[in-house]
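ok trying this again, last paste got cut off
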Amino acid sequence: MVAIEIGKEFSAAVAIGLSSMAAGYAIAGTGAAAAGAVAEKPEVSGKVLLFVALAEAIAIYGLVVSLMILFQ
């Protein structure tokens, strides 16, 4: 029974860890491109913010999955 709990905790940690790293990588790419785009055309700032928010959603999905694993 203890091994199952350890497995759940480890898999939840992997889920949130990998999704956070992926989100960080995506935000780094979109953030740099967004800064350049807004510097050239300030009117695209709303669209650019949407792309950064979509990249952040990856981490939120990882958090939801890890919570589902823990409270199963």
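PB: full thing came through this time. The CA atoms of residues 35 and 42 lie 10 Å apart.
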